[in-house]
Records
---
Amino acid sequence: MGRFWSILFLAVPVLGVGCFVCAAMSRSWPLYNHWFPRDISEHGHVIDDLFTFILLLTGLIFVATSLTLVYFLWKYDARQNAEPVKYTHGSHVLEVVWSILPAATLLFIAIYQMDAWAAAKMRRPMLPGPDGRLETEDDIARPPLAAVTGRQFEWRIAYAGADGVVGTRDDIFTVNDLHVPLGEEIVLEILSEDVLHSLFLPNVRLKQDLVPGMRQYVWFRPLETGTYDIVCAELCGWGHYKMKGRLTVLPRDQFDRWLAQKWAEQELSTYTAERGE
Amino acid sequence: MVGRPAEFGGEARGREARQRAVKGMTLIQTPGGPRSILVLALLALGAGCEADPARFRSNLMFARKQEETVGEKLSPRQLQDVADALAALFGTPDDPYVIPGGGLGLDALLDARRLKFAAGPVGRDQSAEAGGLYRQHCVHCHGVTGDGAGPTAAFLNPYPRDFRRGIFKFKSTPKGSRPTRQDLHRTLVEGIPGTAMPSFRLLPEGELEALIDYVIYLSMRGEVERALLEETADLDAEGGERLDTSPENLIEEKLASVVRRWQAADGQVTPVPPPPTLDPVAAAARGRELFFGSIANCVKCHGELQLGDGQVDDYDDWTKEFYDWAKAPDAAVRRAKVDELVALGGLSPRTIRPRNLRTGVYRGGRRPLDLYWRIHDGIDGTPMPGSLMKPEGAPLEAKGLTPEDIWSLVEYVRSLPYDALSRPHAPPAYGRDRM
């Protein structure tokens, strides 16, 4: 085979980088639409930037190690080298360097991403408390617009209704169909009824595992109207693939009208043969 | 004991096909080198693709029941006659149709194009027409035959619906009637909360309509099969009597009576008068009285605390039909009977639980309209009875409920999930809530 294997191994970094380049130029064949889905959220770019940063960092290291590997394969091919193999006990300096460098890099990433993590998972949007001002001691957590419950294999959604509280008689129930008002901080209460699920809204860069028995809150601010996907990102059983929903972003007045219409449908209480349901 | 039908031969044929594929590989392997590895890998991928066409399963449980009833075994020829007649009337899972009978008016109920859209293997044909909706979305629970015994059925509670009796639980028509297309549509779109039936809201309207057609088709096929099995069991097979497979019998009698029941559904919808404008608290109080009263007597099954713990040892009609004759005082005998049922394609029997009214989960829908229908008409296939209604203009003391009474019950039922007893614990405050 000679140097065939080193050429084969060279194909790994070439194809690997090629795939990413093709995907990133997402308007072109053959990987059309394989880069990020459209980001319609306020904070999504933070996640994207982190992703790109880590991709570039790991990409560089991937290319460097792959090329080193190919170089060694090429140089020390058995047919080209008549000399006997030499053994070495290694180099302490090198060992220390390639242990400390990755450790330092990981530590850097851990610190660098902290703010993004806190914004997505800890700094829940607040409402001004009795003093009427934000960022004071008496701020209250913004109540959830709706509770989204994952179950095998659908998303059951309960809107807080007129009183703004989920779990009361004026809740409005839908399945797989989440509407949210445009430009507002949306807080969702998320729960699981049965097994692990993961609520994934790709277009607002939001993904959170649902754990049975655990009440969690997620938030985002959508900046564009339209219809987007809700998917389950945690293998939850044989029907995992069909656990799809639809996120619709509407201006506030249209959202209110939609909610009122859902409420009217839910309270429907007459049937006559002429009028139908 | 009825024999295993022919469709179980599929496994052996699949094995042969795999062996053929393996032989083919060893032939190509000889040249050696990396190229042959690639060829091998491609071959291995292709070898799994050979599959038998899907077949409808015979209703062996019902055949067995007929044997019990007449006290005689059905011969393989009798079963084959029924299978042939069904194939002539309904086609196969890959090529379904319903014979256009003289003036049955079937076209309004079942559209041939929509049936094809729902049937067959998943994928697109040469003209890029999509197909196989039923096998994509439904078959793993409801089964190719619509017997509610697909591969995943045994792991679900409640079991998936067996369409073959034409009985559907959640509908706008009274017990014993078929559901309307709109009822089936609603079940598909909303799903059935509290069960494994998910919502198919995101499917395009055309696909939903095709699936409704196919469910009705499977249901009709199952009903006709039952009628034919009953008829053939009554024949004197040893005396040479054969199933009457003339169009007069098959189409104008058996199929027509099934079709008529489906066609009648639209005219049988229970009208729902608008609710009286009552104080909700007073209405709920009146509903509570009726709940515990002797006419509605909801308490018997739903329990004093409405937890669905009243009568818990009953069965639904699909189970009862077979479990009744599988009952025996001796546990070992009973187990053997159940094993026999399971071997015939049934699922291990389970009791039916009356609904816990405090969870706020409504399988047939949460609209007041749905609850009115449930209470007024009962739930088909279950021990939940319809209401005894007072005839119009009857004296006050006459036995029965009025529409106002039903609305009071609806109000009471709707208030229960928000009762203090339903939520004994305040939800715990997590650290994250405060952040």
Note: Residues 1-34, 431-435 of chain B have pLDDT under 50 and may be disordered.
---
Amino acid sequence: MFETLFIVSVILIVSSGIKYLWALILLAHDPDSLKIKKDYSYSPKVSVLLPCFNEGRVVYDTIASISKSDYPDFEIIAVDDCSKDSSYYWMQKAAADFPNVRVLRNAVNRGKNKSQMTAFRQSSGDVIICIDSDCIFAANTMRELVVCLADPTMGAVGGRVGVKNTNESIVTRFQAFMYFIGFQLYKIPENWSRTVVCISGCLFATRRSILTELEPTLEDRNWFGVPVAEGEDRFMTHMILLHGLGTYINLDAKCWTDVPDTTSKYFKQQLRWRRSAFRDIFLTIRLLPKHIKDLHWNVTFSILMPAFSLLFGAASILFAPKFDPLFWANPLPWAVYIINSIILSIVIGQLAPEQKISHPLLVMAFGAWWLISHFFITILALFTMDAPDWGTRTKKVLEEAI
Amino acid sequence: MIVTFLKGLKGNMNKSFLFLYRVTAIVVLYGVLFGVGGYLFLQGFYLVNHSWIVPSIVSPSNDAVRQMTSQMVTNKQMLETFTLDRNRLQESLDTMKAQRLELIRLDNDLTSAYRRKSQDDVTAGGDLKELIQEKRQDITKTRPVLNDVTTVEDRIAKDLEAGLITKGDAAIERASLTQLANTYTDNKVAEVLLRDNVREKTTKDIDTLEILSKQADIKSQIVQAAINISIGEQQLASDQKQIDGLVKAMKQIDQSPLYLAVQAQDDVKFAFVPYDNEQGVEVGDAIYDCYLNMIGCRQVGTVKVMFSDEQKVTHPLFKTEVRGFMVQLDLTNLDSAKSKTLFVGHKPLFI
């Protein structure tokens, strides 16, 4: 039984891994198929929604960077979700320093999802861009997102998220690897069919009409009565795909985020993401049978394969010690890690010099922990689906000097 | 009203589900926590602990025992066959060696006899040559006398006619003459015979050649016997090697734990002792069986016999191959032989 489970896991993970190979083939032989038609004459009003909780001064830098956008017509709606630090002060300062910035504050802590919807209701743009409060944006990011939405079949567009604090710790270096792989390789096949299954909440552009339609559902998201505060990006992407609209990652739209710099923060973030992934699996189980005939086959593949890989992978980690407790000592994964790290560090250094990773071999040692932690994260996520919080920022209590 | 009722029902169902979900979550998460913690502790425990042994029960009907029984029977048969062959070969070799010695002795006798005969022939040949010379001289001297016989016979006839002698005297005188002629002839014959004897004594005659031929035959037989003995000795050495190997194998089997099972009527309880845990294991040491493989330990027997043969088993936890040796256990609690591990010498956590 254990062996069968392990083999199934390997098959699923390999199937999922086929996407990497597929991406490389597309990049090498048909790069034009990955490029979306952009209409730079399309310039509707944009509303940037920025929910914030315990970000401190970082939120000011975020607003500053988005304010310096070269896009002609936009507004920024920032909502403070009762931060316990100086975030609200910095948001107000940003409103004072930059035009078209409005700052709101929730009466009580309501979570990212509801804060975002609060901002949405206050917005007036035809295109809505949801961003994270710790990101720095390139000047052309807003434009690059909007021009892709000129195509009426496109429902949502995302951008490439880079890591701002790449060399801060081993954990951040490792995430720089993962972000790079995620955006530069893993999403490529999804981009090919315009069916990206998860557009990052760091940089998520959609039409007002779509968000208006999704608003009640988004507001009502709950886990058997417990409001759901995370994973709105994955949920919105999923719903947009089910509406038969396209989703796309425009790699020319760039932003950089601060990734968790400690293992515990990273664990919490992964836990939040994993819960979000499970919600997506349950949503898939609930809705996919009804929509499957209308969906591109790549959507089904992209939604199902990672989900089942996740479950079977975790199960195989659980049962593997039963038949080979020393399987972690197998030199093959380590050899793969080392080779991967060498190749990727070279590639990242070439394609994203600002994210050049120091000590790549050391970083890959963290990969072993990452693999093991996946087991615990998966189990913990599956049994804490009723936890409503802001993930990595929940317990951040800073009294910064103003 | 119905909507309110349905909302209330849904709310209650959600609450019930959440309650069950949270209870399940607590059970599962604590289960995983304790499971993983326990697993890691167990791994660490077996890395640090050096008193664990792995019990095993071997019954006479065990496949390995049956295989060993079959192996023993085959070995015994082969040993008997080889021993018989070796003894026969040894007897045959002894006979061949005795025959070879006889042939060598005969060869030596023949050589001595031949030498003696040759020396005698040389001496006799020389003497005979001298006698031939003397005989020739005698013949030469007798010849003129015989030439005068006719004259003497004429004189006898004339004397008889003249009546000077009687017939009897004449007959006597004639007989003397005949005797002389015969003697002459005999001398010539003797000379020829002597010459023949000399030739026999001074050259290799047929008889000598026959003797030499026989001696050559004997020498050939001696060489052939030596070759046969050499081949036989090689075969004997080979047989002896096989016998030594089989005897060694039989001794090893005798000393192996399974042999006990072969001999025994009932199940025999053994335990595998890894080399890492070898120190301190002696005959008579106490054996402990524990709950959860580490706590609540109680003495269940002693070490009865220690075997020196190396054994390999799979580690009960790490699933790796472990080298060590077997000990026979004298268990007071027979069920302990079914435990995953036992401990020798002392309780592992002293509880």
Note: Chain A touches chain B through 15 residues (CB under 8 Å).
